[in-house]
Amino acid sequence: MSPGPDKTAIVIGGSISGLIVALLLRRHGWSVDVFERVESELAGRGAGIVTHPDLFAVLREAGIDIPPDLGVAVESRCVFARDGSVEARRQHPQILTSWDRLYQELRSRIPDDRYHKGRHVVGIAQEGAVAVAGFADGSHAEADLLVGADGLRSAVRAQYFPASQPAYVGYIAWRGLVDEARIATDLRADLFRTFAFSLPDGEQMLGYPVAGPGNDTRVGHRRYNWVWYRPANTAVLAELLRDAAGTVHDISIPPPLIRSEVVAAMRDAAGRVLSPQFAALVDLTVQPFFQPIYDLETPRMAIGRVALIGDAAFVARPHVGAGVTKAARDAFSLVTALQSGDGDVASSLLAFESERSAEGRRIIARARHLGAYMQAQIDTPEERRNAAQFRTPEAVMRDTASLDFLQAQDALPAMN
Ligand SMILES: Cc1cc2nc3c(=O)[nH]c(=O)nc-3n(C[C@H](O)[C@H](O)[C@H](O)COP(=O)(O)OP(=O)(O)OC[C@H]3O[C@@H](n4cnc5c(N)ncnc54)[C@H](O)[C@@H]3O)c2cc1C
Q1: Average of pLDDT values for 320-324?
Q2: FRET partner for 298 with CA separation of 20 to 30 A, picked from 186, 260, 270, 340?
Q3: End-to-end CA distance of the chain, in Å?
Q4: Do 385 and 240 form a contact (C-beta atoms < 8 A)?
Q5: To the nearest whole percent, how much of the chain has pLDDT over 90?
Q6: What is the pLDDT of residues 141-164, one digit of tens each?
Protein backbone atom coordinates (compact mmCIF):
# COMPACT_ATOMS: atom_id res chain seq x y z
CA MET A 1 0.00 0.00 0.00
CA SER A 2 1.29 3.50 -0.64
CA PRO A 3 -0.53 5.77 1.79
CA GLY A 4 0.09 9.03 -0.02
CA PRO A 5 -0.25 12.40 1.65
CA ASP A 6 -3.97 11.96 2.28
CA LYS A 7 -3.66 9.13 4.83
CA THR A 8 -4.15 10.53 8.30
CA ALA A 9 -3.53 9.18 11.78
CA ILE A 10 -4.35 10.33 15.30
CA VAL A 11 -2.10 9.05 18.08
CA ILE A 12 -3.47 9.28 21.63
CA GLY A 13 -0.62 9.53 24.15
CA GLY A 14 2.66 11.34 23.53
CA SER A 15 5.02 9.11 25.50
CA ILE A 16 7.40 6.42 24.21
CA SER A 17 4.88 4.26 22.25
CA GLY A 18 3.05 7.24 20.79
CA LEU A 19 6.22 8.96 19.62
CA ILE A 20 7.71 5.84 18.02
CA VAL A 21 4.55 5.02 16.07
CA ALA A 22 4.19 8.65 15.01
CA LEU A 23 7.77 8.72 13.67
CA LEU A 24 7.35 5.45 11.78
CA LEU A 25 4.03 6.54 10.23
CA ARG A 26 5.51 9.91 9.18
CA ARG A 27 8.42 8.13 7.49
CA HIS A 28 5.85 6.30 5.35
CA GLY A 29 4.04 9.44 4.31
CA TRP A 30 1.22 9.54 6.82
CA SER A 31 -0.02 12.83 8.19
CA VAL A 32 0.11 12.29 11.97
CA ASP A 33 -1.14 14.28 14.96
CA VAL A 34 -0.19 13.28 18.51
CA PHE A 35 -2.50 14.23 21.38
CA GLU A 36 -1.06 14.19 24.90
CA ARG A 37 -3.13 14.84 28.02
CA VAL A 38 -0.31 16.46 30.01
CA GLU A 39 0.13 20.22 29.44
CA SER A 40 3.90 20.41 29.94
CA GLU A 41 6.74 18.42 28.34
CA LEU A 42 6.76 14.94 29.88
CA ALA A 43 9.47 13.95 32.36
CA GLY A 44 10.28 10.43 33.54
CA ARG A 45 11.86 11.14 36.92
CA GLY A 46 15.10 9.84 35.36
CA ALA A 47 13.96 6.23 35.64
CA GLY A 48 16.30 3.69 34.08
CA ILE A 49 15.39 1.65 31.01
CA VAL A 50 17.20 -1.54 30.01
CA THR A 51 17.59 -1.75 26.25
CA HIS A 52 17.49 -4.73 23.86
CA PRO A 53 18.81 -4.98 20.27
CA ASP A 54 15.23 -4.94 18.90
CA LEU A 55 14.65 -1.48 20.35
CA PHE A 56 17.65 -0.10 18.45
CA ALA A 57 16.48 -1.83 15.26
CA VAL A 58 13.10 -0.07 15.45
CA LEU A 59 14.67 3.29 16.34
CA ARG A 60 16.82 3.00 13.20
CA GLU A 61 13.65 2.29 11.18
CA ALA A 62 12.22 5.47 12.69
CA GLY A 63 15.18 7.42 11.30
CA ILE A 64 17.28 7.66 14.45
CA ASP A 65 21.03 7.00 14.28
CA ILE A 66 21.74 5.50 17.67
CA PRO A 67 24.03 8.04 19.40
CA PRO A 68 27.02 6.52 21.24
CA ASP A 69 25.92 8.26 24.43
CA LEU A 70 22.35 6.90 24.37
CA GLY A 71 23.14 5.04 27.57
CA VAL A 72 25.75 3.59 29.86
CA ALA A 73 27.27 0.24 28.80
CA VAL A 74 27.93 -2.49 31.36
CA GLU A 75 29.68 -5.79 30.66
CA SER A 76 28.49 -8.05 33.45
CA ARG A 77 25.94 -8.87 36.10
CA CYS A 78 26.55 -9.83 39.71
CA VAL A 79 24.71 -10.73 42.89
CA PHE A 80 25.85 -9.18 46.18
CA ALA A 81 25.46 -11.39 49.24
CA ARG A 82 24.10 -9.92 52.48
CA ASP A 83 27.70 -9.41 53.72
CA GLY A 84 28.68 -7.47 50.58
CA SER A 85 30.74 -10.21 48.92
CA VAL A 86 30.04 -11.11 45.29
CA GLU A 87 28.01 -14.32 45.41
CA ALA A 88 27.84 -14.85 41.63
CA ARG A 89 28.91 -13.09 38.45
CA ARG A 90 28.04 -13.48 34.75
CA GLN A 91 29.07 -11.82 31.49
CA HIS A 92 26.05 -9.95 30.09
CA PRO A 93 26.79 -6.81 28.05
CA GLN A 94 23.86 -4.37 27.92
CA ILE A 95 23.17 -0.67 27.37
CA LEU A 96 21.23 1.06 30.10
CA THR A 97 19.51 4.27 29.22
CA SER A 98 16.83 6.39 30.85
CA TRP A 99 13.25 7.28 30.05
CA ASP A 100 14.14 10.98 29.67
CA ARG A 101 16.95 10.28 27.23
CA LEU A 102 14.74 8.18 24.97
CA TYR A 103 11.87 10.64 25.18
CA GLN A 104 14.15 13.51 24.18
CA GLU A 105 15.52 11.59 21.14
CA LEU A 106 11.99 10.84 19.93
CA ARG A 107 10.19 14.06 20.83
CA SER A 108 12.77 16.30 19.12
CA ARG A 109 11.82 14.70 15.79
CA ILE A 110 8.10 15.51 15.93
CA PRO A 111 7.23 19.08 14.88
CA ASP A 112 5.61 21.09 17.69
CA ASP A 113 2.55 21.86 15.58
CA ARG A 114 1.89 18.09 15.35
CA TYR A 115 2.32 17.38 19.08
CA HIS A 116 -0.71 18.73 20.90
CA LYS A 117 -0.20 19.08 24.66
CA GLY A 118 -3.00 19.34 27.19
CA ARG A 119 -5.45 17.41 24.97
CA HIS A 120 -7.28 14.84 27.07
CA VAL A 121 -9.22 12.25 25.07
CA VAL A 122 -12.52 11.29 26.69
CA GLY A 123 -14.27 9.33 23.94
CA ILE A 124 -13.71 7.50 20.66
CA ALA A 125 -16.14 6.86 17.81
CA GLN A 126 -15.86 5.15 14.42
CA GLU A 127 -18.09 6.52 11.71
CA GLY A 128 -17.80 4.98 8.25
CA ALA A 129 -14.19 5.36 7.09
CA VAL A 130 -13.04 7.64 9.92
CA ALA A 131 -12.10 7.30 13.57
CA VAL A 132 -12.99 10.26 15.79
CA ALA A 133 -11.41 11.29 19.09
CA GLY A 134 -13.40 13.54 21.41
CA PHE A 135 -11.50 15.74 23.88
CA ALA A 136 -12.37 17.03 27.36
CA ASP A 137 -12.54 20.59 26.01
CA GLY A 138 -15.36 19.57 23.65
CA SER A 139 -13.24 19.55 20.48
CA HIS A 140 -12.85 16.61 18.07
CA ALA A 141 -10.23 15.24 15.68
CA GLU A 142 -10.75 12.62 12.98
CA ALA A 143 -8.50 10.43 10.85
CA ASP A 144 -8.25 7.18 8.88
CA LEU A 145 -6.42 5.51 11.77
CA LEU A 146 -6.48 6.03 15.54
CA VAL A 147 -3.69 4.59 17.70
CA GLY A 148 -4.28 4.25 21.44
CA ALA A 149 -0.82 4.70 22.98
CA ASP A 150 -2.23 6.06 26.22
CA GLY A 151 -0.68 3.70 28.73
CA LEU A 152 -1.84 1.57 31.66
CA ARG A 153 -5.04 3.56 32.24
CA SER A 154 -5.85 3.92 28.54
CA ALA A 155 -9.07 5.80 27.80
CA VAL A 156 -9.08 4.21 24.33
CA ARG A 157 -8.98 0.68 25.77
CA ALA A 158 -11.55 1.59 28.45
CA GLN A 159 -14.00 2.66 25.77
CA TYR A 160 -14.02 -0.81 24.19
CA PHE A 161 -13.03 -3.07 27.10
CA PRO A 162 -14.09 -1.43 30.37
CA ALA A 163 -13.62 -4.71 32.24
CA SER A 164 -9.94 -4.89 31.28
CA GLN A 165 -8.36 -3.26 34.34
CA PRO A 166 -4.84 -3.29 35.83
CA ALA A 167 -4.54 -6.17 38.36
CA TYR A 168 -2.28 -5.48 41.35
CA VAL A 169 0.18 -8.38 41.67
CA GLY A 170 0.99 -8.21 45.40
CA TYR A 171 4.27 -6.31 45.43
CA ILE A 172 5.64 -2.85 44.86
CA ALA A 173 8.87 -1.43 43.45
CA TRP A 174 10.68 1.18 45.50
CA ARG A 175 12.90 3.22 43.19
CA GLY A 176 15.62 5.79 43.52
CA LEU A 177 18.47 7.61 41.81
CA VAL A 178 21.78 8.67 43.34
CA ASP A 179 24.29 11.08 41.75
CA GLU A 180 27.61 9.34 41.10
CA ALA A 181 29.55 12.16 42.77
CA ARG A 182 27.78 11.48 46.09
CA ILE A 183 28.80 7.82 46.16
CA ALA A 184 32.04 6.80 47.97
CA THR A 185 34.86 6.02 45.53
CA ASP A 186 35.34 2.35 46.51
CA LEU A 187 31.59 1.74 46.19
CA ARG A 188 31.50 3.40 42.76
CA ALA A 189 34.10 0.95 41.46
CA ASP A 190 31.83 -1.93 42.52
CA LEU A 191 28.63 -0.46 41.15
CA PHE A 192 29.25 1.39 37.89
CA ARG A 193 30.66 -1.52 35.88
CA THR A 194 27.85 -3.95 36.39
CA PHE A 195 24.13 -4.66 36.64
CA ALA A 196 23.83 -5.79 40.25
CA PHE A 197 21.31 -7.65 42.38
CA SER A 198 20.72 -8.42 46.04
CA LEU A 199 18.24 -11.18 46.92
CA PRO A 200 16.72 -10.91 50.40
CA ASP A 201 14.15 -13.61 51.17
CA GLY A 202 11.02 -13.03 49.04
CA GLU A 203 12.37 -9.72 47.68
CA GLN A 204 14.67 -8.46 44.96
CA MET A 205 16.91 -5.41 44.74
CA LEU A 206 18.60 -4.48 41.49
CA GLY A 207 20.52 -1.51 40.21
CA TYR A 208 22.55 -0.18 37.34
CA PRO A 209 24.24 3.04 36.19
CA VAL A 210 22.34 5.50 33.99
CA ALA A 211 23.08 8.96 32.57
CA GLY A 212 23.20 11.86 34.97
CA PRO A 213 21.40 15.24 34.86
CA GLY A 214 21.30 16.64 31.33
CA ASN A 215 21.76 13.06 30.01
CA ASP A 216 25.46 13.22 30.92
CA THR A 217 27.20 9.83 30.53
CA ARG A 218 30.71 11.01 31.57
CA VAL A 219 32.37 9.18 34.45
CA GLY A 220 31.67 11.11 37.64
CA HIS A 221 28.51 12.70 36.21
CA ARG A 222 26.27 9.65 35.93
CA ARG A 223 23.62 8.39 38.34
CA TYR A 224 22.85 5.04 39.88
CA ASN A 225 19.32 3.72 39.40
CA TRP A 226 17.93 1.16 41.85
CA VAL A 227 14.66 -0.80 41.99
CA TRP A 228 13.63 -2.77 45.09
CA TYR A 229 10.69 -5.18 44.82
CA ARG A 230 8.95 -5.79 48.15
CA PRO A 231 5.77 -7.75 48.91
CA ALA A 232 2.76 -5.71 50.09
CA ASN A 233 -0.77 -7.10 50.32
CA THR A 234 -3.67 -4.85 49.34
CA ALA A 235 -4.22 -3.59 52.91
CA VAL A 236 -0.55 -2.66 53.24
CA LEU A 237 -0.62 -1.04 49.79
CA ALA A 238 -3.60 1.13 50.77
CA GLU A 239 -1.60 2.34 53.80
CA LEU A 240 1.43 3.10 51.62
CA LEU A 241 -0.77 5.07 49.20
CA ARG A 242 -2.28 7.18 52.02
CA ASP A 243 -0.83 10.68 52.20
CA ALA A 244 -0.41 12.82 55.34
CA ALA A 245 -3.84 14.42 54.79
CA GLY A 246 -5.49 10.96 54.82
CA THR A 247 -6.22 10.69 51.09
CA VAL A 248 -5.62 7.20 49.68
CA HIS A 249 -4.29 7.62 46.14
CA ASP A 250 -5.40 5.39 43.30
CA ILE A 251 -2.73 3.30 41.48
CA SER A 252 0.23 5.56 42.40
CA ILE A 253 1.13 8.41 44.78
CA PRO A 254 3.23 11.46 43.81
CA PRO A 255 6.68 11.03 45.48
CA PRO A 256 6.52 14.21 47.63
CA LEU A 257 3.24 12.98 49.15
CA ILE A 258 4.65 9.66 50.42
CA ARG A 259 4.51 9.95 54.22
CA SER A 260 7.87 10.41 55.95
CA GLU A 261 7.28 7.39 58.22
CA VAL A 262 6.73 5.18 55.16
CA VAL A 263 10.08 6.29 53.73
CA ALA A 264 11.77 5.90 57.14
CA ALA A 265 10.48 2.31 57.50
CA MET A 266 11.79 1.47 54.02
CA ARG A 267 15.23 2.95 54.82
CA ASP A 268 15.33 1.02 58.08
CA ALA A 269 14.54 -2.26 56.28
CA ALA A 270 17.28 -1.53 53.74
CA GLY A 271 19.88 -1.52 56.50
CA ARG A 272 18.58 -4.83 57.83
CA VAL A 273 18.07 -6.93 54.67
CA LEU A 274 20.10 -5.54 51.75
CA SER A 275 23.78 -5.92 50.93
CA PRO A 276 25.81 -3.01 52.37
CA GLN A 277 26.32 -1.55 48.84
CA PHE A 278 22.58 -1.24 48.26
CA ALA A 279 21.82 -0.15 51.84
CA ALA A 280 24.28 2.71 51.33
CA LEU A 281 22.57 3.71 48.08
CA VAL A 282 19.13 3.76 49.68
CA ASP A 283 20.56 5.93 52.43
CA LEU A 284 21.96 8.40 49.86
CA THR A 285 18.69 8.66 47.90
CA VAL A 286 17.05 12.04 48.45
CA GLN A 287 13.58 11.28 47.07
CA PRO A 288 12.77 7.56 46.94
CA PHE A 289 9.39 6.70 45.44
CA PHE A 290 7.42 3.53 44.81
CA GLN A 291 5.25 2.04 42.09
CA PRO A 292 2.71 -0.73 42.74
CA ILE A 293 3.23 -3.46 40.12
CA TYR A 294 0.33 -4.44 37.85
CA ASP A 295 -0.48 -6.97 35.15
CA LEU A 296 -2.75 -5.86 32.35
CA GLU A 297 -3.99 -7.66 29.24
CA THR A 298 -6.31 -6.34 26.58
CA PRO A 299 -8.63 -8.82 24.85
CA ARG A 300 -7.98 -7.18 21.44
CA MET A 301 -5.33 -4.89 19.93
CA ALA A 302 -7.41 -4.02 16.85
CA ILE A 303 -10.96 -2.67 16.88
CA GLY A 304 -11.91 -1.59 13.37
CA ARG A 305 -9.58 1.29 12.55
CA VAL A 306 -8.43 1.68 16.17
CA ALA A 307 -5.19 -0.01 17.33
CA LEU A 308 -3.83 -0.39 20.88
CA ILE A 309 -0.05 -0.46 21.42
CA GLY A 310 2.48 -0.39 24.29
CA ASP A 311 1.20 -0.28 27.86
CA ALA A 312 -2.33 0.51 26.63
CA ALA A 313 -2.44 -3.08 25.35
CA PHE A 314 -0.25 -5.20 27.66
CA VAL A 315 1.64 -4.33 30.82
CA ALA A 316 4.03 -6.98 32.08
CA ARG A 317 5.76 -6.90 35.44
CA PRO A 318 9.08 -5.13 34.91
CA HIS A 319 11.33 -8.22 35.38
CA VAL A 320 11.60 -8.82 31.64
CA GLY A 321 12.65 -5.17 31.23
CA ALA A 322 10.75 -5.09 27.99
CA GLY A 323 8.08 -2.39 28.22
CA VAL A 324 9.81 0.02 25.88
CA THR A 325 11.11 -2.64 23.47
CA LYS A 326 7.66 -4.24 23.32
CA ALA A 327 6.13 -0.84 22.59
CA ALA A 328 8.66 -0.29 19.78
CA ARG A 329 7.93 -3.73 18.30
CA ASP A 330 4.17 -3.05 18.47
CA ALA A 331 4.65 0.23 16.61
CA PHE A 332 6.87 -1.37 13.97
CA SER A 333 4.48 -4.27 13.41
CA LEU A 334 1.51 -1.91 13.09
CA VAL A 335 3.19 0.28 10.49
CA THR A 336 4.55 -2.73 8.58
CA ALA A 337 1.04 -4.24 8.43
CA LEU A 338 -0.38 -0.94 7.15
CA GLN A 339 2.37 -0.65 4.52
CA SER A 340 2.06 -4.20 3.23
CA GLY A 341 -1.75 -4.39 3.34
CA ASP A 342 -4.17 -3.69 0.50
CA GLY A 343 -5.07 -0.21 1.76
CA ASP A 344 -7.89 -1.31 4.02
CA VAL A 345 -6.93 -0.05 7.48
CA ALA A 346 -9.16 -2.46 9.42
CA SER A 347 -7.78 -5.59 7.74
CA SER A 348 -4.18 -4.39 8.18
CA LEU A 349 -4.92 -3.91 11.87
CA LEU A 350 -6.11 -7.50 12.15
CA ALA A 351 -2.79 -8.68 10.68
CA PHE A 352 -0.96 -6.52 13.24
CA GLU A 353 -3.05 -7.92 16.07
CA SER A 354 -2.44 -11.54 15.13
CA GLU A 355 1.31 -10.89 15.15
CA ARG A 356 1.53 -8.91 18.37
CA SER A 357 -1.07 -10.17 20.83
CA ALA A 358 0.58 -13.61 21.16
CA GLU A 359 3.90 -11.99 22.04
CA GLY A 360 2.25 -9.60 24.53
CA ARG A 361 0.72 -12.59 26.32
CA ARG A 362 4.04 -14.49 26.33
CA ILE A 363 5.87 -11.54 27.88
CA ILE A 364 3.19 -11.20 30.56
CA ALA A 365 3.35 -14.92 31.39
CA ARG A 366 7.13 -14.88 31.54
CA ALA A 367 7.27 -11.84 33.83
CA ARG A 368 4.60 -13.42 36.05
CA HIS A 369 6.82 -16.47 36.58
CA LEU A 370 9.92 -14.40 37.24
CA GLY A 371 8.17 -12.30 39.89
CA ALA A 372 5.99 -14.97 41.51
CA TYR A 373 8.22 -15.48 44.55
CA MET A 374 7.73 -11.85 45.60
CA GLN A 375 3.93 -11.91 45.70
CA ALA A 376 2.51 -11.25 49.15
CA GLN A 377 -0.34 -13.67 48.45
CA ILE A 378 1.80 -16.67 47.45
CA ASP A 379 1.08 -19.26 50.10
CA THR A 380 0.89 -22.90 49.04
CA PRO A 381 4.08 -25.00 49.26
CA GLU A 382 3.69 -25.94 45.59
CA GLU A 383 3.49 -22.29 44.51
CA ARG A 384 6.57 -21.58 46.60
CA ARG A 385 8.51 -24.47 45.02
CA ASN A 386 7.52 -23.37 41.51
CA ALA A 387 8.43 -19.79 42.21
CA ALA A 388 11.75 -20.62 43.88
CA GLN A 389 13.29 -21.94 40.64
CA PHE A 390 13.36 -18.33 39.34
CA ARG A 391 15.12 -16.84 42.37
CA THR A 392 18.53 -18.52 42.40
CA PRO A 393 21.38 -16.06 41.72
CA GLU A 394 22.12 -17.75 38.38
CA ALA A 395 18.47 -17.66 37.25
CA VAL A 396 17.97 -14.04 38.32
CA MET A 397 21.11 -12.89 36.46
CA ARG A 398 20.24 -14.92 33.36
CA ASP A 399 16.52 -14.13 33.10
CA THR A 400 16.08 -10.56 34.36
CA ALA A 401 15.72 -7.98 31.57
CA SER A 402 16.38 -10.60 28.90
CA LEU A 403 14.22 -11.36 25.89
CA ASP A 404 16.07 -14.59 25.00
CA PHE A 405 12.99 -16.60 25.98
CA LEU A 406 11.13 -15.22 22.94
CA GLN A 407 13.52 -17.23 20.75
CA ALA A 408 12.96 -20.43 22.73
CA GLN A 409 10.32 -22.82 21.40
CA ASP A 410 9.46 -24.37 24.75
CA ALA A 411 6.72 -22.39 26.47
CA LEU A 412 6.67 -22.17 30.26
CA PRO A 413 4.01 -24.15 32.13
CA ALA A 414 0.98 -22.10 33.16
CA MET A 415 1.00 -21.19 36.85
CA ASN A 416 -2.18 -19.25 37.54
C1 LIG B 1 9.50 -0.32 38.01
C2 LIG B 1 9.47 -0.29 36.49
C3 LIG B 1 10.64 -0.55 35.80
C4 LIG B 1 10.62 -0.57 34.37
N5 LIG B 1 11.78 -0.86 33.74
C6 LIG B 1 11.76 -0.94 32.39
C7 LIG B 1 12.96 -1.30 31.67
O8 LIG B 1 14.04 -1.50 32.23
N9 LIG B 1 12.89 -1.40 30.32
C10 LIG B 1 11.72 -1.16 29.66
O11 LIG B 1 11.71 -1.27 28.43
N12 LIG B 1 10.59 -0.81 30.31
C13 LIG B 1 10.56 -0.70 31.64
N14 LIG B 1 9.41 -0.37 32.27
C15 LIG B 1 8.16 -0.19 31.48
C16 LIG B 1 8.12 1.12 30.67
O17 LIG B 1 8.32 2.21 31.55
C18 LIG B 1 6.76 1.23 29.95
O19 LIG B 1 6.46 0.01 29.34
C20 LIG B 1 6.77 2.28 28.87
O21 LIG B 1 7.14 3.54 29.37
C22 LIG B 1 5.34 2.38 28.24
O23 LIG B 1 5.24 3.41 27.38
P24 LIG B 1 3.79 3.83 26.78
O25 LIG B 1 4.11 4.99 25.88
O26 LIG B 1 3.09 2.67 26.20
O27 LIG B 1 2.89 4.29 28.00
P28 LIG B 1 3.07 5.55 28.97
O29 LIG B 1 4.50 5.89 29.12
O30 LIG B 1 2.26 5.25 30.19
O31 LIG B 1 2.40 6.77 28.17
C32 LIG B 1 1.04 6.96 28.00
C33 LIG B 1 0.83 8.45 27.67
O34 LIG B 1 -0.54 8.66 27.33
C35 LIG B 1 -0.98 9.83 27.99
N36 LIG B 1 -2.42 9.70 28.19
C37 LIG B 1 -3.04 8.87 29.05
N38 LIG B 1 -4.38 8.99 28.95
C39 LIG B 1 -4.61 9.94 28.00
C40 LIG B 1 -5.78 10.50 27.44
N41 LIG B 1 -7.00 10.13 27.86
N42 LIG B 1 -5.66 11.46 26.47
C43 LIG B 1 -4.43 11.84 26.02
N44 LIG B 1 -3.28 11.31 26.52
C45 LIG B 1 -3.37 10.38 27.49
C46 LIG B 1 -0.20 9.86 29.29
O47 LIG B 1 -0.16 11.16 29.86
C48 LIG B 1 1.16 9.36 28.84
O49 LIG B 1 2.01 10.39 28.41
C50 LIG B 1 9.39 -0.32 33.67
C51 LIG B 1 8.22 -0.03 34.37
C52 LIG B 1 8.25 -0.01 35.77
C53 LIG B 1 6.97 0.28 36.51
Answers
A1: 91
A2: 340
A3: 42
A4: no
A5: 79
A6: 999 999 999 999 999 999 999 999
Mean pLDDT of 60-66: 94
102 C-beta closer than 6 A to ligand 1: no
Coil, strand or helix: which one is 349?
helix
According to the model, what pLDDT value does residue 412 have?
Answer: 36
For residue 37, the CA-to-ligand 1 centroid distance in Å is 13
58 lines ligand 1 (CB under 6 A): no
Q: Measured from the CB, is residue 311 less than 6 Å from ligand 1? A: yes
Is the distance from CB of 385 to CB of 65 less than 8 angstroms?
Answer: no
The 3-state secondary structure of 140-152 reads EEEECEEEECCCC
Task: Verify whether ligand 1 is closer than 6 Å to residue 146 (CB atom).
Answer: no
pLDDT at 44 over 70: no
Question: Long-range contacts made by residues 315-318, C-beta under 8 angstroms, separation at least 24?
Answer: 315/152, 315/166, 315/364, 316/363, 316/364, 316/366, 316/367, 316/368, 317/169, 317/293, 317/364, 317/367, 317/368, 317/370, 317/371, 318/173, 318/227, 318/293, 318/367
Beta bridge partner(s), residue 183: none
Ligand 1 midpoint to CA 151 (Å)? 5
pLDDT tens, 207-226?
A: 999 988 888 889 999 999 99
> Which residue's alpha carbon is at the smallest distance from atom 49 of ligand 1?
15
Residue to substitute in 16, 34, 41, 230 for testing ligand 1 pocket (most ligand atoms within 8 angstroms of CB): 16
* All domains in the chain, ordered by first residue: 8-65+101-165+295-369 (3.50.50.60), 74-94+167-293 (3.30.9.60)
Q: Is the pTM of this model over 0.85?
A: yes
Q: Where are the alpha helices (DSSP H) in 128-275?
A: 155-160, 185-191, 234-240, 260-273
Relative to the CA of 135, which ligand 1 atom is closest? 42
20 CB within 6 A, ligand 1? no
Q: Which atom of ligand 1 is nearest to the CA of 35?
A: 43
pLDDT at 413 (0 to 100): 35
